[in-house]
Write a structure and sequence with these properties.
291 residues; alpha/beta; 6-stranded mixed sheet; elongated
């Protein structure tokens, strides 16, 4: 019997990170040594387009620190090749919204962070955490003050054991990825942040309505996983069958070519004219000379 939610479900993600202090703890762990959130205000998650033809942007969670820094928190389950572009687009929308009319505005931009939890990996990822910033291409150093930062956290590439987790973010990701499998509560005694995270993630802490929505999300998620796994298995079986057939044909072709070389070699030993051997076997004069 599961004790904690599966954070990969939309309703669970919003329930857990809809608790302000839990969101603050998570952001501070992700930005340790760079930025420390003092307080958060949840903002309207829907950004209306500036013109009718543009699309509406809806975030999972959008919040703001007391200094005006913006944070986009997203959970993405389904693999998408264009997710980096989508994440970058989200941040750009939040930057563009800072524009002001009039001559007095000097393009003073406040930081915008996108923190994306992914239940998959992308080819560009070398590790479970990938930070993307504006940088000088020649030196690799961050260009100016960081105004725009994307942090991609891949559950798929996170393989640390409980004992290997050292930093607050490593501990947090371990809990988030595995907590629906927990019998016990790891790290709960180590830090108040971990205790808060696990407490709000308990299934028994949900209201009846939240639990009903969660169970429906869970059913959809399990159906999606089953469909995806079936599609992968079927593709692998078809690929294997195709590979075996291709290998068989290549083997037959290779065997036939070797047979022609043996015939040519025997003809050559008997003193038959090379041009005649070439006509009989289909080998070139050069190939026969090398036998």
């Amino acid at each position: 019997m599961e004790k904690y939610v599966n954070i990969m479900l939309d309703s669970a993600f919003k329930t857990v990170f809809g608790v302000k202090q839990v969101a603050i703890d998570f952001i501070n762990a992700a930005l340790e040594g760079e930025h420390r959130v003092k307080d958060l205000t949840y903002l309207d998650k829907e950004i209306q387009p500036e013109v009718v033809e543009q699309r509406t942007v809806i975030f999972d969670l959008l919040c703001e620190d007391v200094d005006g820094s913006k944070f986009i928190l997203e959970m993405q389950n389904c693999p998408q090749r264009y997710f980096f572009n989508r994440g970058f687009y989200y941040l750009c929308k939040m930057v563009s919204r800072q524009g002001r009319t009039g001559d007095d505005w000097k393009y003073s931009l406040l930081p915008v962070y996108g923190i994306y939890l992914l239940n998959f990996s992308m080819p560009e990822f070398q590790s479970w955490r990938t930070d993307v910033v504006l940088a000088n291409e020649a030196t690799g150093k961050t260009f100016g003050e960081v105004k725009l930062k994307q942090i991609y956290l891949s559950f798929d590439l996170f393989n640390l054991s409980e004992e290997e987790c050292k930093t607050p973010l490593e501990n947090t990701i371990f809990i988030l990825k595995n907590m629906n499998l927990f019998d016990m509560s790891p790290f709960k005694e180590k830090n108040d942040a971990f205790k808060r995270l696990l407490d709000v993630s308990k299934l028994e802490a949900m209201t009846d309505h939240e639990r009903a929505v969660y169970e429906e999300n869970l059913k959809i998620y399990r159906d999606w996983r089953a469909t995806l796994e079936y599609a992968v298995e079927e593709a692998e079986e078809k690929g294997l069958k195709k590979g075996l057939e291709k290998g068989k044909m290549e083997g037959l072709e290779k065997g036939k070519a070797e047979e022609q070389r043996l015939i040519a070699a025997n003809f050559k030993k008997q003193g038959i004219n090379i041009e005649t051997i070439a006509q009989c076997t289909g080998l070139s004069v050069k190939e026969i000379d090398e036998l």
